[in-house]
Amino acid sequence: MMRFVVTGTDTGIGKTIFSAALAAALGGSYWKPVQSGLEEETDSQIVHRLGRLPPNRILSEAYRLRTPVSPHLAARLDHVAIEPEQLTPPVTETPLVIEGAGGLLVPLTETEVFADVFARWQIPVILCARTGLGTINHTLLSLSAAPARHSSLRRRLHWR
User: Fold this and answer.
1) Distance separating alpha carbons of residues 136 and 46, to the nearest angstrom
2) Which residues make beta-bridge pairs with 5?
3) Which of 32, 48, 57, 138 is catalytic?
4) Under CATH, domain 3-154 is a member of which superfamily?
5) Where are the domains of the chain?
6) Do the Cβ atoms of 128 and 7 come closer than 8 Å?
7) pLDDT at 1
8) Which has fewest Cβ within 10 Å: 28, 43, 56, 141?
9) Active-site residue 15, yes or no?
10) In this predicted model, what pLDDT tens digit does every residue of 72-128 receive, in sequence order?
11) How far apart are CA 136 and CA 124, in angstroms?
């Protein structure tokens, strides 16, 4: 089954909008493993609204954290223990779009970042970047950081 991880150079760069469009274009499903910040519209709700995906193709987050900060800090403040080894992409009958939080090196726990989980999954990674000044630097830093940390991502990240 076709699966993609959508990550970014940082937060607020359009990962959710891109994920909604990709899931809709593929006739797929959407999953955000960890959502922090529940007071406003969540990423799953945005993807449902923008992508016009049926509710059954918006898969429940593994962790829903109240505090709108990085997952490792939100988990600590919300008294939740994130277990990265338990994060496993759901099996779906449609293509699956998985959206990370922030960027590749955003801390998931005190000892793991999202790149660690993505490397274990061995799923192609799509990197979203801003369209403004500084984009080249942030993009190249993200592209170089992941393979340096995990050689298994080297085959998965491609400059486009």
Assistant:
1) 27
2) 98, 125
3) 32
4) P-loop containing nucleotide triphosphate hydrolases (3.40.50.300)
5) 3-154
6) yes
7) 82
8) 56
9) no
10) 999 999 999 999 999 999 999 999 999 999 899 999 999 999 999 999 999 999 999
11) 21
